[in-house]
């Protein structure tokens, strides 16, 4: 993953590089570095850990160059140490890279045999030596990069600067996103437009295989074949202000509390409130003709998709195939011609999801994506991009993006149902009205978090935590376990409640908290039977429900009361308590809630 940035500026750029990197920290934060051209030669500063460590290094030894590149890292090849931190460099060239150079071992062997000395364990360093080799052989910088690109396989976004060239920076993109920013007498590159927002809103997105030669006067862009190409400059709406935490201690808390508002906004994009009816954008496909839907996504977005499967199958009576994005394309799933493939992604840059989208496109599917970042690659490569209006999600653990994805999927299910005639106008109105109620219900749930603070102390002592759910609430159990793992580092697993007796029940003893997501719906009694099985084995039951606690029929370790909602909207409502459980447990345990270890917000490597 990683975030990259580059500036050809009119004043020293180190501080601005760090400012841009701060906006890219969501892409990785295990080390960072910048390099500049200092009186003709290359210099760099690097530091392990968060950006503040790089700032300390820069204060101790400032850089004054007006041409520079920067990087924030999520380690793929080599530990997150200073030695492996970017920029990597030789005396002639310095490189920042996002992605993976898949053939770096072969390149390293060839270049080492030619006498190049590698200093790090990274794949990126192969690019440094490959370009240096071209320069050593007398090639001009742009020709050396062009030649090097022909040898690289894998995914990359690259920013490259050169010793002795104060007005030159080269950008290249294959498989990883890269934007160019146009200033007045200044040029920029960055992994996204948000990084460049403090400096310019005039953005060019490079396309697959593009590479560009930047000077302060502008950019010359070439395609994979080396032909000069024109790419549009668009006005980016990325906000130049870094979103702040408001009155909250963490971005995650703020984002949990924003849910009533952002769910409302998202629903408003798909619902005609005045008519209590769905008003879905045109997907360029007759929804009434759909015979199968394929959904694909990763992590939390996958769990949103899984809820979507229950909704679409139940409401629209259309079979839905759902798969984790990293699996779907490799099993070469046969897809019906003209089918609808739906991709769910907050960032719109997730490499596995994007690769699967391209696979489905090649298989003749109509592509719809539910995305939070409208300018993202996934949005741009889709036939129809269906926005979630969650706003920027900074906390690495997804919360508001998840419930907005659910909102868009619920509306999609109703839209297909209506087009296929599987639901009546009355039913449509009932479901739409139920959805419109959700923001109010969630707002009510966010007024008192004291039960979660108490529960957090209890859970913090556990080694393993199980989550159970049934039917459409089974994905909520999966999401609950993922949230807890991610930010508290407690081991947690989600299971379909009915599956417990087929194996996981062996884990239950008096030390294992079992969190049961059990709305009083048509499956409530069945879930309660599974809960009894846990109670009989001494497990500590934490019930999340709108049913009275006595209905559990056993002693509860804790009970989280949830307001009664329409069964259709329960996944949205029950998402909130599982988020709050994870959040308060992590806060109690003192972990880094917004930037948990080993993770990054946007996963742009396979
Ligand atoms: C978990 C989380 C991840 C993402 C996953 C997909 O809290 O945020 O599991 O959901 O990496 O990311 P997007 O939605 O950006 O494709």
Top keywords for this entry?
7-stranded antiparallel β-sheet, 8-stranded antiparallel β-sheet, single chain, Rossmann fold, 606 residues, globular, alpha/beta, binds fructose -6-phosphate, Glutamine Phosphoribosylpyrophosphate, subunit 1, domain 1
What kind of assembly state do the chains in view correspond to? single chain
Approximate strand percentage:
15-25%
Mean pLDDT across every amino acid position: 94
Low-confidence stretches: none
Radius of gyration: 25 Å
Q: What is the general shape? A: globular
Quickly give the structural class.
Answer: alpha/beta
Bound molecules: fructose -6-phosphate
SSE layout and pairings?
Blueprint: E1 3-8, H1 14-22, E2 31-38, E3 41-48, H2 51-60, E4 67-73, E5 88-89, E6 93-101, H3 104-113, H4 125-136, H5 141-151, E7 154-162, E8 165-174, E9 179-182, E10 187-190, H6 193-196, E11 202-205, E12 211-215, E13 218-222, E14 228-229, E15 234-235, H7 251-257, H8 259-268, E16 271-272, E17 277-278, E18 293-297, H9 299-316, E19 320-324, H10 325-328, E20 340-345, H11 351-362, E21 366-371, H12 377-380, E22 384-387, H13 400-420, H14 425-445, H15 450-459, E23 464-469, H16 474-488, E24 491-496, E25 513-517, H17 524-536, E26 540-545, E27 558-561, H18 570-589
Parallel strand pairs: 18-19, 18-20, 20-21, 21-22, 23-24, 23-25, 25-26, 26-27
Antiparallel strand pairs: 1-4, 1-10, 2-3, 2-4, 5-6, 6-7, 7-8, 8-12, 9-10, 9-11, 11-15, 12-13, 13-14, 16-17
The chain binds fructose -6-phosphate (F6R).
């Amino acid at each position: 993953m990683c975030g990259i940035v580059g500036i050809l500026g009119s004043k020293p750029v180190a501080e601005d590089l760090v400012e841009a990197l701060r906006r890219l920290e969501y892409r990785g934060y295990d080390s960072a570095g910048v390099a500049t051209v200092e009186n003709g030669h290359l210099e760099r500063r690097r530091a392990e850990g968060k950006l503040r460590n790089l700032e300390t290094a820069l204060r101790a030894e400032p850089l004054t160059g007006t041409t520079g590149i920067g990087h924030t890292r999520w380690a793929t090849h080599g530990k997150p140490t200073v030695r492996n931190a970017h920029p990597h460099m030789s005396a002639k060239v310095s490189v920042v890279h996002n992605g993976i150079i898949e053939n770096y071992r072969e390149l390293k062997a060839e270049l080492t045999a030619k006498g190049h000395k590698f200093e790090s364990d990274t794949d990126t360093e192969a690019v440094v030596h490959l370009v240096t080799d071209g320069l050593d052989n007398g090639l001009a910088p742009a020709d050396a990069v062009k030649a090097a690109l022909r040898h690289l396989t894998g995914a990359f976004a690259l920013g490259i600067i050169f010793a002795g060239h104060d007005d030159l920076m080269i950008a290249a993109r294959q498989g990883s996103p890269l934007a160019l920013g146009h200033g007045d007498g200044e040029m920029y590159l960055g992994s996204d437009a948000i990084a460049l927002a403090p400096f310019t809103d005039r953005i060019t997105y490079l396309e697959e295989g593009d590479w560009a030669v930047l000077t302060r006067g502008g950019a010359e862009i070439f395609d994979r074949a080396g032909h000069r190409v024109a790419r549009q400059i668009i006005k980016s709406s990325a906000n130049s202000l870094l979103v702040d935490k408001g009155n909250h201690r963490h971005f995650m808390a703020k984002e949990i509390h924003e849910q009533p508002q952002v769910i409302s906004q998202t629903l408003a994009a798909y619902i005609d409130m005045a008519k209590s009816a769905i008003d879905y954008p045109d997907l360029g496909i007759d929804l009434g003709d759909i015979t199968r839907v394929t959904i694909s996504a990763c992590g939390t977005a996958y769990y949103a998709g899984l809820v979507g499967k229950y909704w679409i199958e139940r409401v629209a009576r259309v079979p839905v195939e759902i798969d984790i994005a990293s699996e779907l394309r490799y099993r070469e799933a046969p897809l019906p011609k003209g089918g609808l493939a739906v991709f769910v992604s907050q960032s719109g840059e997730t490499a596995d999801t994007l690769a699967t989208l391209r696979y489905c496109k090649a298989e003749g599917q109509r592509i719809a994506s539910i995305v939070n970042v409208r300018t993202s690659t996934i949005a741009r490569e889709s036939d129809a991009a269906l926005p979630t209006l969650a706003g920027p999600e900074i906390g690495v653990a997804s919360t508001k993006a998840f419930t907005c994805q659910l909102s868009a999927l619920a509306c999609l299910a109703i839209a297909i149902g209506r087009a296929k005639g599987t639901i009546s106008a009355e039913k449509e109105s009932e479901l739409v009205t139920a959805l419109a109620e959700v923001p109010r219900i969630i707002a009510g749930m966010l007024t008192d978090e004291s039960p979660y603070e108490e529960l957090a102390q209890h859970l913090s002592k556990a080694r393993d935590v199980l989550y159970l759910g049934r039917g459409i609430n089974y994905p909520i159990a999966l999401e609950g376990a993922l949230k807890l793992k991610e930010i508290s580092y407690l081991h947690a697993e989600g299971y379909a409640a009915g599956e417990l007796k087929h194996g996981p029940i062996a884990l239950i003893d008096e030390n294992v908290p079992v969190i049961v997501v059990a709305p009083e719906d048509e499956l409530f009694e069945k879930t309660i039977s599974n809960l009894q099985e846990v109670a009989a084995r001494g497990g500590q039951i934490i019930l999340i429900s709108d049913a009275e606690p006595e209905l559990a029929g056993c002693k509860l370790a804790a009970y989280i009361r949830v307001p009664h909602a329409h069964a259709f909207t329960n996944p949205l409502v029950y998402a909130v308590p599982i988020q709050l459980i994870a959040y308060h447990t992590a806060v109690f345990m003192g972990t880094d809630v917004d930037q948990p270890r080993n993770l990054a917000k946007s996963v742009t490597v396979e």
